[in-house]
Amino acid sequence: MYQYLIRRLLWAGVLFIAVTIVSYIIFFLVPAEPARLIAGPQAPPDQVERVKKQMGLDDPVVVQYGRFLGGMMPVSFDGGPHLKHPSLGRSYATRQPVTDIIKDAAPVTASLVFGGAILWMLIAVPVGILSALRPRSLLDRSAMVFVLIGISAHPVWIGLILIYFVGYKAGLTPLGGYCDMIDPSTDCGGPIDWAHSLILPWITFAILFAALYVRMIRANVLEAMNEDYVRTARAKGAPEWLVMRSHVLRNAMLPVVTMLGMDIGIALGGAVFTETVFGLPGLGKRAIQGLEGYDLPAVMGIVVFATVCIIVFNLFVDLLYAVIDPRIRLS
Amino acid sequence: MALLEVKDLKTHFRTDDGIVKAVEGVSFEVEKGKTLGIVGESGCGKSVTCLTIMGLNNRRNTITSGQALFNGQDLLTMKPSRLRDIRGNDMAMIFQDPMTSLNPVHTIGRQLVEAIQLHRDVTRKQARARALELLKAVGIPRAERRIGDYPHQFSGGMRQRVMIAMALINDPDLLIADEPTTALDVTTQAQILELMNRLQREFGSAIIIITHDLGVVAETADDVVVMYAARIVEKAPVDSLFNRPHMPYTWGLLGSLPRLDADTERLMQIPGQPPSLLNPPRGCRFNPRCPYVMSICREKEPELQPISNDPMHLQACHLDEQTKDREAAKLRAGTMAEAS
Questions:
Q1: A-to-B residue pairs, Cβ atoms closer than 8 angstroms
Q2: Rounded to 5 degrees, what are φ and ψ at B33?
Q3: B91-94 and B73-74: which strand pairing?
Q4: How far apart are CA B217 and CA B267, in angstroms?
Q5: How many CA atoms lie within 13 A of A275 on its CB side?
Q6: Nearest beta carbon to residue B103 from set A229, A234, A237
Q7: HEC readout, A68-102
Q8: Closest chain B residue to A225 measured between Cα atoms?
Q9: Which residues does chain B have within 8 Å of residue A330's beta carbon, measured at their own beta carbons?
Q10: Quick check: B95 and A326 CB within 8 A?
């Protein structure tokens, strides 16, 4: 078990290095001059040069990458080894520490993703199971139409439609923006405003996943219902509800747990479309802003955060799987 | 009164290609404490017959008619809740593939306890004790420790023992075993058959054993039903069937058994494939593959009739008695030439 954990963590480290190196290289391949952006468009060339030197932008990529990695370490060897706060650097654009940017943006994305995940599971689990129980019924066919629409429709389009009809025409929800759940620093805040402002984003974000999960759950349940051990359960004289609960669903939901964990891990890196449509200051939106402004530290910070989320959730899913599937636990 | 009396059982499946007549008018009886063997090739309807009796076919696409009287009650028409009371209690089933017949996410102890508690009002502890008793009875070593194990921690033979324990746990009057040894290797097969014979003596259950292996039938059955293409073609007490087989298809099955006492170069085979049950051949269903085929075989389907001087031995074939006795004698001597 511990050996497995150590191996997984080592792999996570390798993955982390690989992802950040690739991000760095891509950023340096882009023909842009961050120093010019920082100094301002009217700044004379010598001032741009000064900025470049000052920020170490004229160093080779390797050196800059090394500095980036060194910044994240909790120890420093400058003038003797000592502990320090890990840092992701400062934004070129705002001079704000990148960790602060992430601290501000991550709760927004997390609110969107976890709320959305709950919503899509609330839709997908019952609809998927009922479709599987009555294949080719009206419900099943309607569900399949929903799946097709959900997969085909772009979240930006869904978002705009919802904003127009629900937010603008019916006036039921705000048209966009984010309200903090706890701290009413802006003009809105508190759990009720928070949920109110997120209703449409949740729906928009959840539709695609709800569609994918309905299809997956339906297929899994249909498959599990044909398993020999389900027939065995019926042969034992088990009533249908018990067959479903204890034999069909228990097995059909195993892969769903994996998918859910991985999807949440990925989405925490930023639900770009939904955040953009609704003007939510989440990680996806910040990453886009960072890219537009060639703000390498901000982008790298979000990449690092997203990578960590994915790695952590994958690990979590693997460990959870070992708990819920005895075949994995003991082999 | 027989324990189970199946009368003119028909099971048809609606499929996209049409109606598959998987069982076409099958009748047989099983007496208390006796073993009936049902023999035939894959797809001849032997498993479907038993699944129909158990009520385990998919109800959505199945059309069933006839009767299956279990202790005088018709299993085919009774309420599902009543049938559930009987299933796993008075009548239990063992399946072909022990690797997939147990739920992989529950311990075998839990699955056994579930089987008891569905039918008996006992505490968990009592149910567990009974489960342990059965695991010991079917020969699981160190049963106290293994009761908490998951199916994947058992070998195929051990899993089939668990399945047998689960089937017998409520002391059923009738045990249906659908190819219980097919997925197992030969030494394990022998052990499982021996186990079933022993448990039958102890528990006194009647057994229906479905198999394509006449060797299994010879070892276990009192009576044999030979099925071909959804119909019964021969039905007899086991000795009578092996001594005076009366149907060319049965000859084919017997001739394809390897024998140590005869000097045969190669085993006989039945040429061709079993017919499609979507549109079976006219007349005798075996006629396209029968080496003794006559013109009447292509016109008229033979009826199941008793042979002369043995009312217990039924067969469905147009051939005359002399030819049958001659061929049966040849087969017994193991000198029957290759049929084709």
A1: 78
A2: 75, 0
A3: unpaired
A4: 19
A5: 25
A6: A229
A7: HHHHHCCEECCCCCEECCCCCCECCCCCCEHHHHH
A8: B58
A9: 150, 152-153
A10: no
B180 contacts chain A (CB < 8 A): no
DSSP 8-state symbol, A160: H
B86: chain A residues, CB-CB within 8 Å: 237
Apex CA A195: angle with CA A191 and CA A199, to 5°? 180
Contact between A326 and B150 using a beta-carbon 8 Å cutoff: yes
**Could you say which of A237, A326, A330 has the minimum Cβ distance to residue B118?**
A237
Q: Per-residue confidence of chain B (340 residues) as pLDDT tens digits?
A: 789 999 999 999 999 999 999 999 999 999 999 999 999 988 899 999 999 999 999 888 999 999 999 999 999 999 999 999 999 999 999 998 888 999 999 999 999 999 999 999 999 999 999 999 999 988 899 999 999 999 999 999 899 999 999 999 999 999 999 998 888 888 888 888 888 888 888 888 899 999 988 888 988 999 999 999 999 999 999 999 998 899 999 998 888 777 666 666 677 788 888 888 898 899 999 999 998 999 999 999 999 999 888 899 999 999 988 888 888 888 877 644 444 3
Whether A261 and A306 have beta carbons less than 8 Å apart is answered as no
Q: Is the pTM of this model over 0.90?
A: no
